[in-house]
């Protein structure tokens, strides 16, 4: 009987993870850093990038540095949103990889 209960709980958890994944994909936000605009979802999927015209007049190294900073900061924000969603799903349980 315990095995049946464990399997049922695993199926329930899987369903919740699938639901969470849908929410993360749907939770999109715009992020701006030094004029660079990035659209990203909470699943850390980058959806669009907009560079300001004046940035394109800079040298290649400066552009690369600023764009990389923008993506890193947008990714960090997306990961925070993902962690909050996972925390609410798992009700504080420690699950490896989350």
List the helices and strands and how they pair.
Layout: H1 2-26, E1 28-33, E2 36-41, E3 46-50, H2 60-90
Antiparallel strand pairs: 1-2, 2-3
SS-based class: alpha+beta
Reported for the largest beta sheet, the result is: 3 strands, antiparallel
CATH class: Alpha Beta
H/E element sequence: HEEEH
User: Stretches where pLDDT falls below 50 for ≥5 residues?
Assistant: none
* Structural domain count: 1
Explain what this protein looks like in three dimensions.
The chain has 98 residues and is α+β, with helices and mostly antiparallel strands. The protein has a single domain (2-90), classed as Ybab, Chain: A, CATH 3.30.1310. The chain has 2 helices and 3 strands; from the N terminus they run αβββα. The protein has helices at residues 2-26, 60-90; strands at residues 28-33, 36-41, 46-50. Strands 1-2-3 form a 3-stranded antiparallel beta sheet. A hairpin with a 2-residue loop joins strand 1 and strand 2 (36-41). Helix 1 packs antiparallel against helix 2 (60-90). 8% of the residues are buried. The mean pLDDT is 87.
